Automatic annotation (TrEMBL):
It comes from Solenopsis invicta (Red imported fire ant). Keywords: Membrane, Mitochondrion, Transmembrane, Transmembrane helix. The chain crosses the membrane at residues 6-31. This is ATP synthase 8.
Amino acid sequence: MPQMMPLFWMMMIILTITLLIICSSYIYFLYLPSLTFNKSKLSAPCYWNWK
């Protein structure tokens, strides 16, 4: 059992980093069009076409 602990912690760290990257990119793509919509009208349609 003690041999499994480093692997477990490495998996937890990788999972946490992956979740952080996914959440930050999701928030970034969600809020970027609303912030830049007033400056350029092309941002929102491009965002919707991305999805």
